[in-house]
Structure formats: structure tokens, C-alpha cells
Design brief:
The complex is a heterodimer of chains A (138) and B (146).
Chain A lengths: L4 H23 L5 H19 L10 H26 L4 H8 L3 H11 L6 H17 L2
Chain B lengths: L3 H5 L1 H24 L4 H22 L8 H26 L4 H8 L3 H10 L7 H19 L2
Helix pairs in contact in B: 3-4
The chains are: A mainly alpha (138), B mainly alpha (146).
């Protein structure tokens, strides 16, 4: 069976972020969730020398550069909001599955923003994935 | 059904902010990846995450717990998250449907659950077993619908 490149990249995401979930549990055994996020960003910075693009950075459009930086802002903002939800009385058994529903935002907005549509079969896959993450984070 | 009190609860709105933020993160990742390669996306993404980390640090009055183990796990977490981020951006850049990629990559808790059972010796609940079944179904469907 021939699988497209994105499928293999997604597999790498699943494995690395899956292990991250375990490390998260281990780190928050010793330090608070907020401290854990701060040190996590330190970990991000350890990769920066390897990722540094040099002069090529200035060749991209200002718009794309803005999207890239904003993706980091929103990712960290989401993580902060998750902690804040837990701290302000939200039960982990409700907050975790609820927040796992973020791909639904993409499913709803992608057709408008990116003019992409999904086939019926892909829709079934998306539905299964959403049910799966909700059940797995319960 | 959520009751009226749910909508008044702070945690509900923080959770909503989380869902919307992560939705925006995935969409912006796709928009940026149309032009920018994965390594540069991750390089820039890190600078985006920095202000939130600094604000959190300030909220803690610039004090952090001094647990070497906790710090080690959290920093390792960042390195591994960053490597995963590279693959995340690469997936968007290589084409494919954005909603499908966002959904497929959101399945990472299935690996966490599997590792929690094998490494941390946690027990699977029946809800998680059903969840793993749905995750497997999603992956099989995605592999056939490309």
C-alpha cells in the first residue's frame, strides 16, 4: 500500500508527542505544571541552533513569518489555558477530553479559510479520531 | 448536558480558550507551512511560545522549583516536543488535507496510554480500550482515504 508522506510525518508526531505525554506526567510529579511549561520552552530553545535558517529567514513573506510565530503564541496560550482551567476548578476528567477536541475547530474552519473539503470516508476517520481522543483522555 | 452553571464557570471558558487556541495553532501551522519549510517553522514557533513562558515566569515572581529530576523531564519534553513539531509542520507542508492531518496527529494520547501501561504500569480502563479501538479505526480509514 502506498501511503503519502504526511502519513509518515504524522506517525513521527504520534510517537514523539505520545512519549511527551509520559514525560509530562513524570515532570509534574516533581514540579508544577507552569514550571514544566517554562522548562519545556527552554527545551525548545536547545533545538534553535540546529534549526537556525540563516539569511534564508529574510526571504519569506512577512505574512508567512507572522503565521509561524503566531502558531507558537497560540500553542503556548492553549497550554496555559489548559492549566488555568484545571486550577480554576475544572475536573481533569472533563477538561482533558474537552480540550482534545481542538481538531474540530480545524474541521469547521478549514473549508472557509483554506477552501478544503473532506470526503465522506475522511469525515468518518475524523469522527473516529475525535471519539478516540475524547475516550483516551478521560 | 452542560448546565447553566457550567457556562458561568471559569474553567469552562479557559477550556474553550484552549480549544480555540489549539485550533488556531493547527490552522496557522498550515498557513505558514505553505511557504516556510518545517525546520524554519519550528525555529519561529519557539519565539512565539517565548512570551507566554516569560509571562508565566513573571506570574511565579521569577521563582521555579529546584527539582533536577522535574527540570530534566520538562526540558527533555521540550526537545522531544520540538522534534515532533518539526514532523507536524512537515506533514502540513507535504500536502494532504488539513483537517485530516490535524485529526490524525491529535491521536498521540494513544501512544501515551500504551506507554503508561507498559512503562508506568498503569491499568487500562475499559473506556481507554474503546478509545484505542476508535484510534485504530481512524488510522485504518485515513490510510485508505488518501
Amino acid at each position: 500500500m502506498h501511503l503519502p508522506p504526511w502519513f509518515w510525518y504524522a506517525a513521527v508526531v504520534l510517537i514523539t508527542w505520545g512519549v511527551v505525554g509520559i514525560l509530562q506526567k513524570l515532570s509534574t510529579n516533581y514540579i508544577s505544571a507552569e514550571s514544566s511549561l517554562i522548562w519545556l520552552v527552554v527545551g525548545f530553545f536547545l533545538l534553535e541552533p540546529v534549526l537556525y535558517p540563516g539569511k534564508a529567514l529574510f526571504g519569506y513573506s512577512a505574512r508567512s513569518l507572522t503565521w509561524a510565530v503566531l502558531s507558537g503564541v497560540f500553542n503556548a496560550l492553549g497550554a496555559w489555558a489548559l492549566f488555568a482551567a484545571m486550577k480554576s476548578g475544572g475536573k481533569a476528567s472533563i477538561v482533558a477530553p474537552f480540550t482534545a477536541l481542538y481538531p474540530l475547530v480545524v474541521v469547521l474552519i478549514a473549508p472557509i479559510l483554506l477552501h478544503e473539503s473532506i470526503t465522506l470516508l475522511q469525515g468518518a476517520g475524523v469522527a473516529c479520531a475525535l471519539v478516540a481522543v475524547v475516550l483516551l483522555s478521560t | 448536558m452542560p448546565s447553566a452553571t457550567t457556562f458561568k464557570a471559569k474553567w469552562f471558558w479557559y477550556s474553550m480558550l484552549c480549544v480555540l487556541s489549539w485550533g488556531a495553532w493547527a490552522l496557522l501551522s498550515k498557513l505558514g507551512s505553505n511557504e516556510i519549510p518545517a525546520d524554519t517553522m519550528q525555529f519561529l514557533f519557539t519565539f512565539g511560545a517565548l512570551p507566554v513562558a516569560v509571562l508565566l515566569f513573571a506570574a511565579r515572581r521569577f521563582k521555579l522549583e529546584k527539582s533536577p529530576k522535574g527540570i530534566f523531564y520538562a526540558v527533555a519534553n521540550g526537545v522531544l516536543s520540538g522534534i515532533g513539531g518539526l514532523a507536524f509542520f512537515a506533514a502540513f507542508r507535504s500536502g494532504g488535507n488539513t483537517a485530516v492531518i490535524a485529526s490524525a496527529t491529535s491521536l498521540y494520547p494513544m501512544i501515551t496510554v500504551a506507554l503508561a501501561v507498559t512503562i508506568l504500569r498503569e491499568r487500562l480502563t475499559w473506556v481507554q480500550v474503546v478509545g484505542l479501538g476508535f484510534a485504530a479505526a481512524a488510522i485504518v480509514i485515513f490510510s485508505f482515504s488518501v
